[in-house]
Amino acid sequence: MASLAAMLKEKSYEVTGSDEGIYPPMSDFLAQKEIPVFPGYNIRNLENDPDLIIVGNALSRGNPEIEHMLNRRMPYSSFPEAMKHFFLRDRTPVVVTGTHGKTTTTSMIAWTLQAAGLKPDFLIGGIAENFRSSYGLGGGPFCVVEGDEYDSAFFDKGPKFLHYLPYAAVIGNIEFDHADIYRDLESIKLQFRRFVNLIPEQGYLAVGGDSLAAVEVGRSCLGKTETFGMDGSNDWSPESIEYRDNRTFFDILYRGKQFGRAGLGVYGTYNIRNALAAAATLNHLEVPGEDILRGLETFSGVRRRLQLRATVNGIQIYEDFAHHPTAVEETLRSMQDAFHPKRLWAIYEPRSATSRRKIFQDAIARALGRADCIAIAPLFKPDKVPAEEQLDLEGLAENLRAMGRRAWIPGTVEGIIRTVCEEARPDDMIVIMSNGGFGDIYSRLPAALEALFAKSPSGEQEYDQ
Predict the structure, then answer these.
(1) What does the pLDDT look like over 256-287, one tens digit per residue?
(2) Contacts of 321 by beta carbon, 8 Å cutoff, 6+ apart
(3) For 84-128, where are the E strands, in sequence order?
(4) Model's pTM, two decimal places?
(5) Domains of the chain by range and CATH?
Protein backbone atom coordinates (compact mmCIF):
# COMPACT_ATOMS: atom_id res chain seq x y z
CA MET A 1 0.00 0.00 0.00
CA ALA A 2 2.85 2.42 0.77
CA SER A 3 4.38 1.90 -2.67
CA LEU A 4 1.03 2.49 -4.36
CA ALA A 5 0.57 5.64 -2.25
CA ALA A 6 3.96 6.92 -3.39
CA MET A 7 3.19 6.12 -7.03
CA LEU A 8 -0.06 8.08 -6.81
CA LYS A 9 1.72 10.97 -5.11
CA GLU A 10 4.26 11.06 -7.96
CA LYS A 11 1.31 11.32 -10.37
CA SER A 12 0.29 14.51 -8.50
CA TYR A 13 -2.61 13.06 -6.52
CA GLU A 14 -3.14 14.21 -2.95
CA VAL A 15 -2.71 11.11 -0.79
CA THR A 16 -3.29 10.42 2.91
CA GLY A 17 -3.57 7.17 4.83
CA SER A 18 -4.55 5.46 8.06
CA ASP A 19 -2.88 2.59 9.89
CA GLU A 20 -3.03 1.02 13.32
CA GLY A 21 0.70 1.13 13.83
CA ILE A 22 3.19 2.83 11.52
CA TYR A 23 6.87 2.40 12.30
CA PRO A 24 10.26 2.84 10.61
CA PRO A 25 11.28 2.18 7.94
CA MET A 26 7.76 2.57 6.47
CA SER A 27 6.97 5.70 8.49
CA ASP A 28 10.24 7.27 7.32
CA PHE A 29 9.50 6.30 3.71
CA LEU A 30 6.04 7.91 3.79
CA ALA A 31 7.35 11.02 5.54
CA GLN A 32 10.03 11.38 2.86
CA LYS A 33 7.29 11.20 0.22
CA GLU A 34 5.28 13.81 2.19
CA ILE A 35 2.33 11.45 2.60
CA PRO A 36 0.49 12.09 5.91
CA VAL A 37 -0.57 8.98 7.84
CA PHE A 38 -3.17 9.12 10.60
CA PRO A 39 -2.42 6.83 13.56
CA GLY A 40 -5.33 4.47 14.17
CA TYR A 41 -8.69 4.27 12.42
CA ASN A 42 -11.22 7.03 13.03
CA ILE A 43 -14.04 8.50 10.95
CA ARG A 44 -12.39 11.91 11.37
CA ASN A 45 -9.72 10.68 8.96
CA LEU A 46 -12.36 10.73 6.20
CA GLU A 47 -13.80 14.17 6.97
CA ASN A 48 -12.21 15.66 3.87
CA ASP A 49 -14.50 13.46 1.70
CA PRO A 50 -11.79 11.82 -0.45
CA ASP A 51 -12.53 11.19 -4.11
CA LEU A 52 -11.50 7.54 -3.65
CA ILE A 53 -10.74 5.29 -0.70
CA ILE A 54 -8.30 2.44 -1.43
CA VAL A 55 -8.92 -0.41 1.01
CA GLY A 56 -6.10 -2.80 1.95
CA ASN A 57 -6.82 -6.50 2.35
CA ALA A 58 -5.92 -6.43 6.06
CA LEU A 59 -9.09 -4.46 6.87
CA SER A 60 -12.48 -6.03 7.53
CA ARG A 61 -16.01 -5.17 8.55
CA GLY A 62 -16.20 -3.52 11.95
CA ASN A 63 -13.33 -1.15 11.24
CA PRO A 64 -14.74 2.34 11.96
CA GLU A 65 -13.50 3.86 8.72
CA ILE A 66 -14.87 0.93 6.69
CA GLU A 67 -18.27 1.30 8.35
CA HIS A 68 -18.30 5.07 7.80
CA MET A 69 -17.28 4.56 4.16
CA LEU A 70 -20.13 2.11 3.58
CA ASN A 71 -22.72 4.15 5.48
CA ARG A 72 -21.86 7.27 3.51
CA ARG A 73 -21.64 5.35 0.20
CA MET A 74 -18.22 6.83 -0.43
CA PRO A 75 -16.29 5.64 -3.52
CA TYR A 76 -13.84 2.85 -2.75
CA SER A 77 -11.51 0.42 -4.50
CA SER A 78 -9.21 -2.47 -3.70
CA PHE A 79 -5.44 -2.10 -4.05
CA PRO A 80 -5.19 -4.12 -7.31
CA GLU A 81 -8.21 -2.43 -8.87
CA ALA A 82 -6.59 0.95 -8.19
CA MET A 83 -3.35 -0.32 -9.70
CA LYS A 84 -5.23 -1.33 -12.83
CA HIS A 85 -7.12 1.96 -13.14
CA PHE A 86 -4.22 4.33 -12.52
CA PHE A 87 -1.18 2.49 -13.93
CA LEU A 88 -1.98 -0.46 -16.20
CA ARG A 89 -4.62 0.57 -18.71
CA ASP A 90 -2.33 2.83 -20.74
CA ARG A 91 0.72 0.50 -20.59
CA THR A 92 1.58 -3.02 -21.75
CA PRO A 93 1.24 -5.02 -18.51
CA VAL A 94 3.90 -7.66 -17.80
CA VAL A 95 2.58 -9.75 -14.89
CA VAL A 96 4.79 -12.22 -13.00
CA THR A 97 3.06 -14.88 -10.89
CA GLY A 98 3.83 -18.16 -9.13
CA THR A 99 4.25 -19.56 -5.64
CA HIS A 100 8.01 -18.87 -5.56
CA GLY A 101 10.41 -16.51 -7.29
CA LYS A 102 8.02 -13.86 -8.54
CA THR A 103 9.70 -10.95 -6.71
CA THR A 104 13.12 -11.77 -8.15
CA THR A 105 11.79 -12.48 -11.65
CA THR A 106 9.78 -9.22 -11.65
CA SER A 107 12.91 -7.34 -10.57
CA MET A 108 15.03 -9.00 -13.27
CA ILE A 109 12.56 -8.06 -16.00
CA ALA A 110 12.14 -4.48 -14.76
CA TRP A 111 15.88 -3.94 -14.41
CA THR A 112 16.70 -5.39 -17.84
CA LEU A 113 14.06 -3.17 -19.47
CA GLN A 114 15.61 -0.21 -17.64
CA ALA A 115 19.15 -1.21 -18.68
CA ALA A 116 17.91 -1.48 -22.28
CA GLY A 117 16.68 2.12 -22.12
CA LEU A 118 12.95 1.24 -22.09
CA LYS A 119 12.16 3.04 -18.79
CA PRO A 120 9.44 0.74 -17.39
CA ASP A 121 6.91 1.44 -14.70
CA PHE A 122 7.07 -1.33 -12.10
CA LEU A 123 5.66 -2.51 -8.78
CA ILE A 124 7.52 -5.25 -6.90
CA GLY A 125 6.82 -7.00 -3.60
CA GLY A 126 10.33 -6.23 -2.34
CA ILE A 127 13.21 -3.78 -2.67
CA ALA A 128 15.06 -4.31 -5.97
CA GLU A 129 18.68 -3.40 -5.23
CA ASN A 130 19.31 -1.98 -8.71
CA PHE A 131 16.56 0.58 -8.15
CA ARG A 132 16.78 0.77 -4.33
CA SER A 133 13.01 0.81 -4.53
CA SER A 134 9.94 -1.39 -4.82
CA TYR A 135 8.37 0.81 -7.51
CA GLY A 136 9.25 3.10 -10.36
CA LEU A 137 7.51 5.33 -12.88
CA GLY A 138 9.78 5.43 -15.90
CA GLY A 139 7.02 6.40 -18.31
CA GLY A 140 7.99 3.80 -20.93
CA PRO A 141 5.62 1.43 -22.74
CA PHE A 142 5.72 -1.41 -20.18
CA CYS A 143 4.43 -1.77 -16.61
CA VAL A 144 5.97 -4.77 -14.83
CA VAL A 145 3.99 -5.92 -11.82
CA GLU A 146 4.33 -8.78 -9.37
CA GLY A 147 1.06 -10.72 -9.48
CA ASP A 148 0.11 -11.89 -6.01
CA GLU A 149 -2.35 -14.80 -5.61
CA TYR A 150 -3.46 -13.54 -2.20
CA ASP A 151 -6.91 -11.98 -1.87
CA SER A 152 -7.69 -8.35 -2.73
CA ALA A 153 -10.02 -6.89 -0.08
CA PHE A 154 -12.84 -7.81 2.29
CA PHE A 155 -15.28 -7.19 -0.57
CA ASP A 156 -13.14 -9.01 -3.18
CA LYS A 157 -11.73 -12.35 -2.05
CA GLY A 158 -10.21 -13.11 -5.48
CA PRO A 159 -6.45 -12.87 -6.14
CA LYS A 160 -4.85 -9.54 -6.89
CA PHE A 161 -3.46 -10.81 -10.18
CA LEU A 162 -6.94 -11.10 -11.69
CA HIS A 163 -7.04 -7.28 -11.88
CA TYR A 164 -3.75 -6.77 -13.71
CA LEU A 165 -4.76 -7.09 -17.38
CA PRO A 166 -1.99 -9.57 -18.26
CA TYR A 167 -0.60 -9.16 -21.76
CA ALA A 168 2.79 -10.79 -21.23
CA ALA A 169 2.81 -13.08 -18.21
CA VAL A 170 4.88 -15.58 -16.25
CA ILE A 171 3.70 -18.51 -14.13
CA GLY A 172 6.88 -19.73 -12.49
CA ASN A 173 5.41 -22.57 -10.46
CA ILE A 174 2.26 -23.51 -8.56
CA GLU A 175 2.26 -25.20 -5.14
CA PHE A 176 -0.09 -25.25 -2.18
CA ASP A 177 0.29 -22.13 -0.02
CA HIS A 178 -1.82 -19.56 1.85
CA ALA A 179 -3.66 -22.15 3.91
CA ASP A 180 -5.66 -19.37 5.54
CA ILE A 181 -7.58 -18.66 2.33
CA TYR A 182 -7.11 -21.71 0.09
CA ARG A 183 -8.44 -25.18 0.89
CA ASP A 184 -6.05 -27.18 -1.28
CA LEU A 185 -3.88 -27.09 -4.39
CA GLU A 186 -6.89 -27.44 -6.70
CA SER A 187 -8.44 -24.25 -5.34
CA ILE A 188 -5.20 -22.37 -6.08
CA LYS A 189 -4.96 -23.86 -9.58
CA LEU A 190 -8.50 -22.63 -10.25
CA GLN A 191 -7.39 -19.03 -9.64
CA PHE A 192 -4.38 -19.45 -11.93
CA ARG A 193 -6.67 -20.86 -14.63
CA ARG A 194 -8.78 -17.71 -14.33
CA PHE A 195 -5.60 -15.66 -14.67
CA VAL A 196 -4.55 -17.53 -17.82
CA ASN A 197 -8.04 -16.98 -19.24
CA LEU A 198 -7.36 -13.22 -19.15
CA ILE A 199 -4.33 -13.40 -21.47
CA PRO A 200 -5.42 -12.31 -24.97
CA GLU A 201 -4.75 -14.23 -28.18
CA GLN A 202 -2.03 -11.72 -29.03
CA GLY A 203 -0.54 -12.12 -25.56
CA TYR A 204 2.24 -14.31 -24.18
CA LEU A 205 2.77 -16.74 -21.30
CA ALA A 206 6.07 -18.16 -20.01
CA VAL A 207 5.42 -21.30 -17.94
CA GLY A 208 7.77 -23.00 -15.51
CA GLY A 209 8.20 -26.43 -17.09
CA ASP A 210 9.56 -27.94 -13.85
CA SER A 211 6.16 -27.42 -12.19
CA LEU A 212 3.56 -29.95 -13.36
CA ALA A 213 0.74 -27.83 -11.94
CA ALA A 214 1.93 -24.73 -13.83
CA VAL A 215 2.24 -26.68 -17.09
CA GLU A 216 -1.26 -28.08 -16.63
CA VAL A 217 -2.75 -24.64 -15.99
CA GLY A 218 -0.81 -23.05 -18.86
CA ARG A 219 -2.26 -25.43 -21.46
CA SER A 220 -5.46 -23.38 -21.64
CA CYS A 221 -3.68 -20.18 -22.74
CA LEU A 222 -4.92 -18.87 -26.11
CA GLY A 223 -1.84 -16.71 -26.59
CA LYS A 224 1.70 -17.80 -27.42
CA THR A 225 3.09 -20.11 -24.71
CA GLU A 226 6.69 -21.11 -24.02
CA THR A 227 8.19 -23.19 -21.23
CA PHE A 228 11.37 -22.66 -19.24
CA GLY A 229 13.14 -24.97 -16.84
CA MET A 230 16.19 -27.02 -16.02
CA ASP A 231 15.36 -29.83 -18.45
CA GLY A 232 16.44 -29.47 -22.06
CA SER A 233 12.95 -30.37 -23.28
CA ASN A 234 11.78 -26.86 -22.33
CA ASP A 235 11.81 -24.02 -24.84
CA TRP A 236 14.26 -22.19 -22.57
CA SER A 237 16.84 -24.20 -20.60
CA PRO A 238 20.35 -23.89 -19.12
CA GLU A 239 23.53 -25.75 -19.93
CA SER A 240 27.12 -25.79 -18.62
CA ILE A 241 26.31 -24.38 -15.16
CA GLU A 242 29.24 -23.35 -12.98
CA TYR A 243 29.67 -21.38 -9.76
CA ARG A 244 32.84 -19.31 -9.54
CA ASP A 245 33.99 -15.84 -8.52
CA ASN A 246 30.79 -15.43 -6.46
CA ARG A 247 28.68 -15.70 -9.61
CA THR A 248 26.52 -18.26 -11.42
CA PHE A 249 27.42 -18.87 -15.07
CA PHE A 250 25.37 -20.86 -17.57
CA ASP A 251 24.51 -21.04 -21.24
CA ILE A 252 20.92 -20.10 -22.12
CA LEU A 253 19.46 -22.39 -24.78
CA TYR A 254 16.40 -21.39 -26.76
CA ARG A 255 14.80 -24.42 -28.38
CA GLY A 256 18.12 -26.24 -28.21
CA LYS A 257 20.19 -23.45 -29.76
CA GLN A 258 22.64 -21.13 -28.02
CA PHE A 259 21.04 -17.83 -26.98
CA GLY A 260 23.99 -16.57 -24.94
CA ARG A 261 26.04 -17.16 -21.81
CA ALA A 262 24.63 -15.56 -18.65
CA GLY A 263 26.54 -14.55 -15.55
CA LEU A 264 24.39 -13.90 -12.48
CA GLY A 265 25.42 -12.28 -9.23
CA VAL A 266 22.80 -14.41 -7.43
CA TYR A 267 22.96 -18.11 -6.65
CA GLY A 268 20.96 -21.28 -6.90
CA THR A 269 18.95 -23.36 -9.32
CA TYR A 270 15.85 -21.31 -8.56
CA ASN A 271 17.58 -18.12 -9.71
CA ILE A 272 18.60 -19.84 -12.94
CA ARG A 273 14.90 -20.57 -13.46
CA ASN A 274 14.05 -16.96 -12.64
CA ALA A 275 16.59 -15.75 -15.19
CA LEU A 276 15.21 -18.11 -17.85
CA ALA A 277 11.69 -16.77 -17.19
CA ALA A 278 12.97 -13.22 -17.53
CA ALA A 279 14.91 -14.00 -20.72
CA ALA A 280 11.90 -15.71 -22.32
CA THR A 281 9.57 -12.81 -21.52
CA LEU A 282 12.03 -10.12 -22.56
CA ASN A 283 12.77 -11.93 -25.82
CA HIS A 284 9.05 -11.95 -26.59
CA LEU A 285 8.97 -8.20 -25.86
CA GLU A 286 11.66 -7.87 -28.58
CA VAL A 287 14.43 -6.74 -26.26
CA PRO A 288 17.74 -7.48 -28.05
CA GLY A 289 19.60 -10.55 -26.82
CA GLU A 290 22.72 -8.61 -25.86
CA ASP A 291 20.60 -6.27 -23.72
CA ILE A 292 18.96 -9.25 -22.01
CA LEU A 293 22.34 -10.79 -21.15
CA ARG A 294 23.72 -7.45 -19.96
CA GLY A 295 20.66 -6.86 -17.78
CA LEU A 296 20.97 -10.28 -16.15
CA GLU A 297 24.71 -9.80 -15.63
CA THR A 298 24.22 -6.45 -13.86
CA PHE A 299 21.21 -7.56 -11.80
CA SER A 300 21.99 -6.93 -8.12
CA GLY A 301 19.29 -9.03 -6.50
CA VAL A 302 16.42 -8.26 -4.14
CA ARG A 303 16.70 -7.24 -0.53
CA ARG A 304 16.04 -10.12 1.89
CA ARG A 305 16.63 -12.72 -0.83
CA LEU A 306 19.78 -14.55 0.29
CA GLN A 307 21.35 -11.28 1.36
CA LEU A 308 24.66 -11.29 3.25
CA ARG A 309 24.06 -9.34 6.47
CA ALA A 310 27.38 -9.76 8.30
CA THR A 311 30.62 -11.69 8.61
CA VAL A 312 31.83 -12.11 12.19
CA ASN A 313 35.06 -14.00 12.94
CA GLY A 314 34.65 -16.02 9.75
CA ILE A 315 30.96 -16.77 10.42
CA GLN A 316 28.81 -15.57 7.51
CA ILE A 317 25.20 -14.59 8.27
CA TYR A 318 22.63 -14.43 5.48
CA GLU A 319 19.00 -13.35 5.49
CA ASP A 320 16.39 -14.95 3.26
CA PHE A 321 12.62 -14.63 2.81
CA ALA A 322 12.10 -18.40 2.51
CA HIS A 323 9.24 -19.89 4.55
CA HIS A 324 7.56 -22.45 2.28
CA PRO A 325 9.35 -25.87 2.38
CA THR A 326 10.26 -25.73 -1.31
CA ALA A 327 11.84 -22.29 -0.94
CA VAL A 328 13.67 -23.35 2.24
CA GLU A 329 15.15 -26.40 0.53
CA GLU A 330 16.12 -24.47 -2.61
CA THR A 331 17.80 -21.77 -0.51
CA LEU A 332 19.85 -24.23 1.54
CA ARG A 333 20.78 -26.26 -1.54
CA SER A 334 21.96 -23.13 -3.33
CA MET A 335 24.25 -22.29 -0.39
CA GLN A 336 25.74 -25.79 -0.51
CA ASP A 337 26.21 -25.72 -4.29
CA ALA A 338 27.73 -22.26 -4.42
CA PHE A 339 29.87 -22.17 -1.26
CA HIS A 340 30.35 -25.73 0.06
CA PRO A 341 30.33 -24.54 3.69
CA LYS A 342 31.94 -26.68 6.41
CA ARG A 343 28.74 -26.37 8.41
CA LEU A 344 25.47 -24.86 7.31
CA TRP A 345 22.99 -23.41 9.81
CA ALA A 346 19.29 -22.82 9.24
CA ILE A 347 17.51 -20.48 11.64
CA TYR A 348 13.84 -20.79 10.78
CA GLU A 349 10.72 -18.93 11.89
CA PRO A 350 7.35 -20.59 11.14
CA ARG A 351 5.57 -17.29 10.54
CA SER A 352 3.28 -17.53 7.50
CA ALA A 353 -0.25 -18.92 7.72
CA THR A 354 0.90 -22.07 5.94
CA SER A 355 4.26 -22.64 7.64
CA ARG A 356 2.59 -22.56 11.08
CA ARG A 357 0.44 -25.55 10.13
CA LYS A 358 1.30 -29.24 10.28
CA ILE A 359 0.24 -29.75 6.66
CA PHE A 360 3.96 -29.35 5.84
CA GLN A 361 5.28 -31.21 8.91
CA ASP A 362 7.27 -33.78 6.92
CA ALA A 363 8.16 -31.44 4.05
CA ILE A 364 9.72 -28.79 6.28
CA ALA A 365 11.73 -31.47 8.10
CA ARG A 366 13.15 -32.69 4.79
CA ALA A 367 13.89 -29.12 3.72
CA LEU A 368 15.59 -28.04 6.95
CA GLY A 369 17.45 -31.35 6.98
CA ARG A 370 19.74 -30.00 4.27
CA ALA A 371 21.43 -27.95 7.01
CA ASP A 372 23.78 -29.34 9.65
CA CYS A 373 22.48 -27.22 12.53
CA ILE A 374 18.91 -25.98 12.86
CA ALA A 375 17.42 -23.53 15.35
CA ILE A 376 13.62 -23.22 15.18
CA ALA A 377 11.69 -20.22 16.49
CA PRO A 378 8.29 -20.51 18.19
CA LEU A 379 5.18 -20.31 16.02
CA PHE A 380 4.27 -16.73 15.20
CA LYS A 381 0.90 -15.82 16.75
CA PRO A 382 -0.05 -19.43 17.54
CA ASP A 383 -3.51 -18.31 18.71
CA LYS A 384 -4.36 -17.62 15.05
CA VAL A 385 -4.06 -21.34 14.19
CA PRO A 386 -6.27 -24.03 15.77
CA ALA A 387 -4.21 -26.18 18.16
CA GLU A 388 -4.93 -29.37 16.22
CA GLU A 389 -3.60 -27.78 13.00
CA GLN A 390 -0.37 -26.34 14.42
CA LEU A 391 3.10 -27.41 13.32
CA ASP A 392 4.58 -29.78 15.93
CA LEU A 393 7.92 -28.15 16.77
CA GLU A 394 9.10 -30.92 19.10
CA GLY A 395 8.25 -33.53 16.48
CA LEU A 396 10.09 -31.48 13.87
CA ALA A 397 13.22 -31.31 16.03
CA GLU A 398 13.02 -35.06 16.71
CA ASN A 399 12.81 -35.79 12.97
CA LEU A 400 15.85 -33.62 12.32
CA ARG A 401 17.86 -35.29 15.08
CA ALA A 402 16.91 -38.68 13.66
CA MET A 403 18.53 -37.52 10.39
CA GLY A 404 21.75 -36.88 12.31
CA ARG A 405 21.27 -33.12 12.44
CA ARG A 406 21.69 -30.87 15.48
CA ALA A 407 18.39 -29.15 16.24
CA TRP A 408 17.26 -26.75 18.93
CA ILE A 409 13.97 -25.10 19.90
CA PRO A 410 15.20 -22.33 22.20
CA GLY A 411 11.75 -20.77 22.66
CA THR A 412 12.69 -17.12 22.06
CA VAL A 413 14.80 -15.02 19.73
CA GLU A 414 17.10 -14.37 22.67
CA GLY A 415 17.43 -18.12 23.16
CA ILE A 416 18.30 -18.65 19.48
CA ILE A 417 20.99 -15.96 19.68
CA ARG A 418 22.39 -17.55 22.85
CA THR A 419 22.44 -21.00 21.20
CA VAL A 420 24.28 -19.71 18.14
CA CYS A 421 26.80 -17.85 20.29
CA GLU A 422 27.49 -21.07 22.20
CA GLU A 423 27.62 -23.40 19.20
CA ALA A 424 28.80 -21.51 16.10
CA ARG A 425 32.35 -21.83 14.79
CA PRO A 426 34.50 -19.87 12.35
CA ASP A 427 33.67 -20.77 8.72
CA ASP A 428 30.07 -21.67 9.63
CA MET A 429 27.47 -20.28 7.27
CA ILE A 430 24.14 -19.19 8.81
CA VAL A 431 20.90 -18.58 6.89
CA ILE A 432 18.08 -16.85 8.78
CA MET A 433 14.75 -17.59 7.11
CA SER A 434 11.48 -15.78 7.78
CA ASN A 435 8.91 -13.71 5.89
CA GLY A 436 8.70 -11.20 8.73
CA GLY A 437 10.70 -9.11 11.18
CA PHE A 438 11.76 -12.10 13.34
CA GLY A 439 12.46 -9.93 16.39
CA ASP A 440 15.22 -8.08 14.49
CA ILE A 441 17.45 -11.15 14.77
CA TYR A 442 19.13 -10.07 11.52
CA SER A 443 21.00 -7.30 13.33
CA ARG A 444 20.90 -8.65 16.90
CA LEU A 445 22.69 -11.92 16.10
CA PRO A 446 25.73 -10.28 14.41
CA ALA A 447 25.93 -7.78 17.28
CA ALA A 448 25.90 -10.59 19.85
CA LEU A 449 28.62 -12.49 18.02
CA GLU A 450 30.71 -9.32 17.72
CA ALA A 451 30.40 -8.78 21.47
CA LEU A 452 31.25 -12.41 22.18
CA PHE A 453 34.44 -12.42 20.17
CA ALA A 454 35.44 -8.97 21.45
CA LYS A 455 35.46 -10.41 25.00
CA SER A 456 37.86 -13.20 24.05
CA PRO A 457 41.49 -12.08 24.47
CA SER A 458 42.53 -14.09 21.40
CA GLY A 459 39.48 -13.06 19.36
CA GLU A 460 38.47 -16.71 19.23
CA GLN A 461 36.13 -18.88 21.23
CA GLU A 462 36.91 -22.37 22.50
CA TYR A 463 34.84 -25.15 20.97
CA ASP A 464 34.16 -28.73 21.89
CA GLN A 465 35.76 -31.08 19.40
Answers:
(1) 999 999 999 988 888 999 999 999 999 999 99
(2) 103, 126, 304, 305, 327, 433, 434, 435
(3) 92-97, 121-128
(4) 0.86
(5) 2-74 (3.40.50.720), 81-297 (3.40.1190.10), 307-455 (3.90.190.20)
